[in-house]
């Protein structure tokens, strides 16, 4: 990972076995969702997957959607749309912050 996680929720410290126990999903299902690019675990030097608490919640949300008949492709498309919307909002916030800083001669 490029940067140190800011919250304990983001730290990738949970093994796939524990994630399986917490979510009720099989390890095979969890690996399948990784293959479908719905969850992104880190890997240890020995190749073991490590998940965060946010990943656990995402997997539970994915399982609920799958149970409701939503396809993995649709879930992935929704994730992409949300990420784009978050990125646009961050750009807007940074632009506004920059304009305010420039207007009031503020430096960070």
TrEMBL record:
Keywords: DNA-binding, Repressor, Transcription, Transcription regulation. The keyword Transcription applies. SMART domains: HTH_MERR. Gene3D superfamilies: 1.10.1660.10. Pfam families: MerR_1. One of its GO terms (molecular function) is DNA binding. This is Transcriptional regulator. It comes from Aureibacillus halotolerans.
């Amino acid at each position: 990972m490029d940067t140190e996680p800011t919250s304990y929720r983001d730290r990738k410290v949970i093994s796939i076995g524990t994630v399986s126990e917490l979510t009720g999903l099989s390890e095979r299902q969890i690996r399948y969702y990784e293959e479908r690019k719905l969850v992104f675990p880190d890997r240890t030097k020995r190749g073991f997957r490590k998940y965060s608490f946010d990943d656990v919640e995402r997997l539970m949300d994915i399982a609920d959607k799958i149970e409701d008949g939503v396809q993995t492709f649709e879930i992935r498309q929704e994730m992409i749309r949300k990420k784009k919307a978050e990125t646009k909002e961050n750009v807007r916030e940074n632009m506004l912050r920059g304009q305010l800083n420039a207007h009031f001669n503020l430096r960070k």
